[in-house]
Amino acid sequence: MEIVIEGNAFINGDLVKCAIGVEEGRIKAVKKILKGDRHYDFGDKLILPGGIDAHVHFRDPGMTHKEDFGSGTVSAAFGGVTCALDMPNTIPPTTSKEALQEKARIAGSKAFVDFGLFAGVSMNSDFEELSKHATAFKIYLATTTGRLLIRDYNVLDEIFQRLGATNKTVCVHCEDEDLINKTMNPDSLKSHLKSRPNPCEASSIKKVIRSSRGAKVHICHVSTSKGVKLVKTEGVTSEVAPHHLFLNSNVKLGALGKVNPPLREPKDQEALWEALNSNIIDIIASDHAPHTLEEKELFEEAPAGIPGVETMLPLMLSLVKHNKFQLGRLVNAVSEKPNEIFHLNKGKLSPGYDADMIAVDLRKEGEIKGKNLHSKCGWTPYEGFNGVFPRFTFVRGEVVIEDWELTGERGFGSMVGESLGSGAVKVD
Ligand code: NCD
Ligand code: ZN
Ligand code: ZN
Ligand code: ZN
Predict the structure, then answer these.
(1) Is residue 364 part of a domain?
(2) Is residue 235 part of a domain?
(3) Among 19, 113, 188, 347, whose Cα sits 20 to 30 Å from the Cα of 339?
(4) What is the dihedral sign for C-alpha 240, 243, 245, 249?
(5) Of the bound ligands, which one is closest to the alpha carbon of residue 42?
């Protein structure tokens, strides 16, 4: 083997002491003992599949003062995320083949971990063409950062029908624009919540599910107990964001806590944990949406969005350490399930899959500090929360984080799907 990684690895739902052999960036074999040119032995420490973050805003191109593909993927790597799917609300938005190709070029030259790109859906795009250049599609049903918005629910039937033909997953930001109170000028988390009340989400999810026959619909950042009930619908998948799990509208974060959909009340927060524990919500995705402290100064004018790609796994691993969350469910929610929804050939420690993994020492827990994180935005809403950061991060067998330090190379990250279709490598 070119590379052998040994430890207490998460294989088929169980922790097993074993050796993982890697050749040409993919897992070639999992055995009791393997010989390798390069050998990493993590003893009894955990080896988990790398995290797949299906919802990030790396702001590149167009808003690179907030983040770019370099800083965004460095953050990802430190947080154990080995693949991130980037949203289309950049400048220009990725609603055309040209914009997608340009973003792929930029990302490919800067990325430290692998990435996929969303195509933004607008009424007159050529979905068939876009599907060749994007990992999945994204629909915005409410105004949020960026200008991608589908206002007219009457066109949804037709859009979903056309998207269904591409066979790609269609992610939807569900808030009903017509139920947002536009006369308010919110100056606090409580009034922001009032202006985008819970029924916004439920109404929007209902309309989407009604229209979506034929398309693979994925509901982004579910945030309400009513939303949870609706995403139980057969064939619909969904995600929850860390900020809706760990924070609520009572926190004293001011504009830093301003996000769409808004932070909700504790009873919604509880419903989300329950839904995540019981597989009703499929995955955790960060909705990493960095804005600078300067932009977040005045509540009324602050853009909505919270950073999270670097802290998502550390926060969850800390819960695992304290037996408050099941390891198997975590791996499923951040690696296995995202792979199934987006077809990435990642997220499993099994022959044929990309050799993306993290080595974790649950004994090494620390306090999260904004100044130690790597997003350009320079802050976190989780200041002082406990986190377990991975000791090593491997992308396709190569070390990107070594002993909590960056050793990866800019431009090593590559776009997912480039090698897809070749099928899994068969080993005995
Ligand atoms: C996101 C952003 O800033 O791009 N903001 C947010 O509040 N979540 C956009 C989005 O996902 O709605
Ligand atoms: Zn050994
Ligand atoms: Zn959104
Ligand atoms: Zn988002």
Answers:
(1) yes
(2) yes
(3) 19
(4) negative
(5) 2
Q: Which of 175, 287, 295 to mutate to test the pocket of ligand 1 (most atoms within 8 A of CB)?
A: 287
- List active site positions: 287
- 395 and 329 in a single domain? The answer is no
Ligand 1 pocket, mutate which of 144, 286, 295 (most atoms under 8 A from CB): 144
223 lines ligand 1 (CB under 6 A): no
- Rounded to the nearest 5°, which phi and psi values hold at 45? -75, 160
- Do 257 and 124 share a structural domain? yes
- Entry pTM: 0.96
Token pair listed for 35: 């010989």
**% pLDDT > 90, the chain:** 92
Q: Which residues contact 225 (CB under 8 A, 6 or more apart)?
A: 267, 268, 271, 272
* Any domain includes 423: no
Q: Tell me the pLDDT tens digit for each residue of 44-81.
A: 999 999 999 999 999 999 999 999 999 999 999 999 99
Q: CA 118, CA 98: separation in Å to the nearest integer?
A: 13
Q: Which atom of ligand 1 is nearest to the CA of 220?
A: 11
* Predicted confidence (pLDDT) at residue 323 exceeds the cutoff of 90: yes
Range of the domain at 129: 51-342
Task: Say whether both 180 and 198 belong to one domain.
Answer: yes
What's the gap in Å between 143 CA and the centre of ligand 3? 9
Quick check: 65 and 292 in contact, CB under 8 A? yes
CATH code where residue 293 lies: 3.20.20.140
Whether residue 259 has its Cβ less than 6 Å from ligand 1: yes
Rounded to whole angstroms, the Cα distance separating 279 from 125 reads 34
Ligand 1 centroid – CA 182 distance (Å) = 18
229 and 323 part of one domain: yes
Boundary of a domain, candidates 342, 369, 385? 342
Cβ neighbour number for residue 372 with a 10 Å cutoff: 14
- How many domains are there within the chain? 2
Q: How far apart are CA 269 and CA 266, in angstroms?
A: 5
